[in-house]
Amino acid sequence: MDRWKAIGLRVLGLCLYRVGLFLLLTRWVDRVQKKSTETHALSFPCVQKRTLNPVQILMYHGISDAWSPFLPTEPIELFRNHLQYLSTYCNVLTLDEATERMKCRDVPNRAVVITIDDGYRDSYLNAFPLLREMGLPATVFLATVCTGSESLLWHDRACWMISHTTVPSLEGYGSQARYELTTPEAKRAAQAGVLWYLRSLEDRERIQALEQLSEILGLPEDPKLDSRLMLNWQEVEEMYKGGVQFGAHTVNHPILSKLPLSSVIDEVRKSKDMIEQNLGARVTTFAYPSGRPEDYNQEIKDIVKQEGFSCAVSTVRGQNYEGDDLFDLKRMGYWDHDSGVFGLRFEYTRFCV
Known about the structure:
This protein is α/β, with parallel strands linked by helices. It is built from twelve helices and 13 strands.
């Protein structure tokens, strides 16, 4: 069923996109949205007139065609197709402009923001040329411990160890689950499970757990790679001069809710200071590492605000409206390779959320 559903979406999206009927679809979605009750159940009539323009913030990480032993990357053509759709049918804003318009209750129709997390070098090699070609702005959030260095973020170290180990299985680690490690697919599943476990730990516990994982898998915890994975400051400066904004994503990418508040202040402040010193420009946007509801709280939001940021983004799915908390902004990820299918999902989200 899923296969036929995917085929049906692709055929429908292709027809609408090629024939030019997406313009009619977008105009309809601009005027109406799904009507639901407080319990989110459908009510009759099931549509109502749209009264507010949402801001949809898109989230990406790696943009590359190369196989990655780390977190999955999005193919370059996927990113290109998304940008083509956005440049044709949407009003792409910087994150600063979008939040300022939200504060002024002046959000334009079909407002979209593009964000890329962590600061991988492929954002310079692959995403930046496409953004520049299409004249679209974006914000890249930097975890500064790795910018301009050979270091890896803690979640990338865990994924590297799992992808490169020759140990056939991982048993009795963390959640006590048993992970087979004999195929690439099994290793992907193990990565997801191990990362879920590591995110649940206090900061010191996670450091110890990574050391334990290194011993079990028989690999160094901080490997030396053949090629650089993260951006350096020269690339950051070139992207900034080319219209890309940069926001802070902490220094070490910890789960902030697992830290004492004094350490949260250090992570937030030092990442902001480092980017500002290297760019000679103010940094006003922040992204919570991992960004799930349990990864930050009101005290952490207050710290981000007190450190001089104007907004902060999570990974909670949804759209943003005038009057929403600017330090609890929602984001969406899409993984559709085809422009038509991406368009259908994008418009469906605008209609329903």
